[in-house]
């Protein structure tokens, strides 16, 4: 009767109050046929990990513009692992300096997207990460 | 650990995975639900429905907070199933009900699951009943089910929940809206949310007028057949009638929630006193079986079709050689008119 849909949590950790980018991504993923759980602004890493667990998502998209990514992203990764969700792929969008990109990738982030990234690339990357060919 | 034992042991990731299996209609999910079914029947299912923007998510949030910190008695374990619509074109969905429920995060006694309707009509998803059983088996006492923001015919929730709240707000419509059949008729409790807004008096009058026009004592719950919701041996049910109370709330400020929870408890006691609880359980399970039976019959029938048969019938329809009713007759007889 049904099939397995890709489920993605889109969250904005930290204190910046601007979620237009996150909403654009949420809508693009919806239009790509995914189920997007949108949690809104000012989420703590604990809230994000808890939502990822309850919703049994395949991927988490974090939108961060505040510069706090080096604190927030590793914490989310750590909590996901602690909950047994090692299989959940984490993507980060926002303004991330080049020197931090490689550090975050090493920490286990599956993809990082700056301003102007084509949404189709993000969609393709999520699909590939969730269902490796 | 397998799905069933991890759910029974209270493992949250196990429950989350079971819900995904149930949603995808997988064999694993079906088998797990079969094994868990004897552990169900303990939870109280509360449905929350109403037009988009009436504040259903905020109300669910407040009710959950209330059940977690009741003025008296033990905290109850609360599961929330929040259904939002899927796109009819892409099958995708944005599920945003958690936005209003951030106060519940960090509480191990609360489990929130968002669910896309995936093409089901009636305000729920096909897997909603199965998900409610999973929560029930996992030991949640209260299951709050928030429907898709509904119009006038999203009444499936009344077949799933023990108690159905219909949420209205001031200024949505005149008193003719209130007497139309459908959504208001399924209400066990009417909630007038955003009651700090102008127009609350006239909105309440309109709802009250609708109630006075007569609340059906016997409900036509299924395919137009009248179904008695009380068991035959309960004489009391004939004497006592439930008139849906109207409760004013301001969900964002938490106002009126205690009174609303009291009304819900009052309804639960009424159901048990009158014997209607058993009747509703029976109607609920009957409804679930019929839905499953329908989809199973359809699937079995499709498997029995020879390749190309269905397309041939559609071609004959397009060429106006057959009417849709003739096409159905031909398909059921296994014959195609050429």
Helicity of chain B, as a percent range: 40-55%
Distance between the termini of chain A: 25 Å
| DSSP, total strands of chain A | 5
Q: In CATH, what is the homologous superfamily of chain A?
A: Cobalamin-binding domain
Any idea what the radius of gyration of chain B is? 22 Å
Q: Tell me the number of helical segments of chain A per DSSP (H or I, 4 or more residues long).
A: 5
**What structural class do the secondary elements of chain B suggest?**
alpha/beta
Radius of gyration of chain A: 13 Å
* Mean of pLDDT of chain A: 91
- Output the CATH class name of the largest domain in chain B: Alpha Beta
How can the largest sheet of chain A be summarized? 5 strands, parallel
CATH superfamily of the largest domain in chain B: P-loop containing nucleotide triphosphate hydrolases
Descriptive account of the structure:
- The complex is a heterodimer of chains A (133) and B (338).
- Helices cover 44% and strands 18% of the residues of chain A.
- With 133 residues, chain A is an alpha/beta fold.
- Chain A has a single domain, classed as Rossmann fold, CATH 3.40.50.
- Chain A has a five-stranded parallel β-sheet with strand order 2-1-3-4-5, sandwiched between helices.
- Chain B folds into two domains: 38 residues, no CATH class; 236 residues, Rossmann fold (3-Layer(aba) Sandwich), CATH 3.40.50.
- Helix content of chain B is 43%, strand content 14%.
- The radius of gyration of chain B is 22 Å and the shape is globular.
- About 2% of the residues of chain B have low confidence.
- Classes of the chains: A alpha/beta (133), B alpha/beta (338).
- Chains A and B meet through helix 1, strand 2 and helix 2 of A and helix 2, strand 3 and strand 4 of B.
- Strand 2 of chain A pairs parallel with strand 3 of chain B.
């Amino acid at each position: 009767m049904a099939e397995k849909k890709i489920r993605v949590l889109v969250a904005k950790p930290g204190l910046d109050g601007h979620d237009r980018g996150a909403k654009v991504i949420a809508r693009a993923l919806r239009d790509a046929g995914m189920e997007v759980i949108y949690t809104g602004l000012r989420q703590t890493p604990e809230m994000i990990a808890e939502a990822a667990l309850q919703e049994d998502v395949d991927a988490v998209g974090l939108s961060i513009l505040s510069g706090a990514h080096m604190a927030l992203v590793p914490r989310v990764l750590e909590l996901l692992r602690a909950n047994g969700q090692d299989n959940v792929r984490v993507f980060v969008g926002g303004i991330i300096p080049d020197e931090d990109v490689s550090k975050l990738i090493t920490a286990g982030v599956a993809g990082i997207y700056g301003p102007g990234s084509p949404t189709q690339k993000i969609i393709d990357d999520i699909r590939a990460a969730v269902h490796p060919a | 650990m397998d799905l069933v034992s991890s759910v029974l042991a209270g493992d949250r990731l196990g429950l989350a995975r079971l819900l995904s299996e149930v949603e995808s209609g997988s064999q694993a999910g079906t088998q797990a639900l079969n094994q868990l079914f004897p552990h169900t029947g303990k939870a109280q299912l509360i449905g929350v429905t109403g037009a988009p923007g009436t504040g259903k998510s905020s109300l669910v949030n407040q009710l959950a907070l209330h059940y977690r910190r009741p003025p008296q008695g033990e905290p109850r374990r609360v599961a929330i199933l929040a259904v939002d619509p899927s796109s009819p074109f892409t099958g995708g969905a944005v599920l945003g009900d958690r936005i209003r429920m951030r106060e519940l995060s960090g509480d191990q006694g609360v489990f929130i699951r968002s669910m896309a309707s995936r093409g089901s009509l009636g305000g729920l998803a096909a897997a909603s009943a199965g998900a409610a059983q999973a929560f029930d088996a996992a030991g949640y006492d209260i299951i709050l089910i928030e429907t898709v923001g509904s119009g006038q015919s999203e009444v499936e929730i009344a077949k799933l929940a023990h108690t159905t709240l219909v949420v209205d707000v001031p200024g949505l419509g005149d008193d003719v809206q209130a007497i139309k059949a459908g959504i208001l008729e399924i209400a066990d409790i009417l909630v007038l949310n955003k009651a700090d807004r102008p127009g609350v008096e006239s909105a309440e009058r309109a709802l009250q007028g609708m109630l006075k026009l007569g609340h059906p004592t016997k409900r036509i719950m299924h395919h137009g057949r009248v179904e008695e919701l009380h068991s035959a041996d309960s004489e009391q049910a004939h004497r006592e009638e439930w008139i849906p109370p109207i409760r004013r709330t301001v969900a964002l400020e938490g106002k009126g929630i205690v009174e609303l929870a009291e009304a819900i408890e009052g309804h639960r006691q009424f159901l048990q006193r009158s014997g209607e609880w058993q009747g509703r359980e029976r109607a609920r399970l009957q409804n679930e079986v019929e839905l499953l039976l329908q989809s199973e019959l359809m699937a079995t029938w499709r498997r029995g079709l020879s390749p190309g048969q269905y397309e041939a019938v559609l071609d004959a329809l397009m060429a106006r050689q057959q009417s849709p009713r003739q096409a159905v007759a031909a398909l059921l007889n296994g014959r195609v008119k050429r």
